[in-house]
């Protein structure tokens, strides 16, 4: 652990950037032809000479390469919405039909009728959205009345990404907003003040 802290100190002292915009995914760490950014490149270099760091890095890569999918169910009872995590399943294919098959296995294990599914929500990935072979289209073959809703957080991230590519001043704005949110969220006292002010509106 001390080695990693020393790497962080070195990068800060030299005024270097920590990350590269590309190739930060753990699944690419074994590819030495890619530039992973200063932090990861130094850690990879140290792992060649330090067995402990090499062991941690290898375990991390293996863990990340196991792609899993979370299955959440939302049910409405009166005016209350109940949300439950009902499964974390290993996902070997992101094709729409394969994702639907995984979800149907979870439904079957819980004795849930998939025909009673009224909606689903996913990110905006193309494999989820395709008109004929995407996840939503495949689920509609099983649950005819279900409606697909994009995850609003993912949509917001896409919008912010597009805006910051077009209007450079927006980067400062979103940086200030993020700083305010982090400041409020990381202090219990600030969070209590914020919550009370929101209740009194």
Write structural notes for this entry.
Helices cover 54% and strands 14% of the residues. The chain has 201 residues and is an alpha+beta fold. The strands form 2 sheets. It has a two-stranded antiparallel sheet. The protein is extended, with a radius of gyration of 22 Å. It starts with a helix and ends with a helix. The mean pLDDT is 78.
Ordered list of secondary-structure elements with their pairings:
Elements: H1 2-14, H2 38-47, H3 51-65, E1 68-77, E2 80-90, H4 96-109, E3 119-122, H5 126-129, H6 135-142, E4 147-150, H7 152-166, H8 169-185, H9 188-199
Parallel strand pairs: 3-4
Antiparallel strand pairs: 1-2
Helix pairs in contact: 1-2, 2-3, 4-6
Overall, the morphology is: extended
- Helix percentage: 40-55%
**Helix-strand topology string:** HHHEEHEHHEHHH
Count of alpha/pi helices = 9
Query: How big a fraction of the residues is strand?
Result: 5-15%
Protein name: Ribonuclease H-like domain
InterPro entries: RNaseH-like_sf
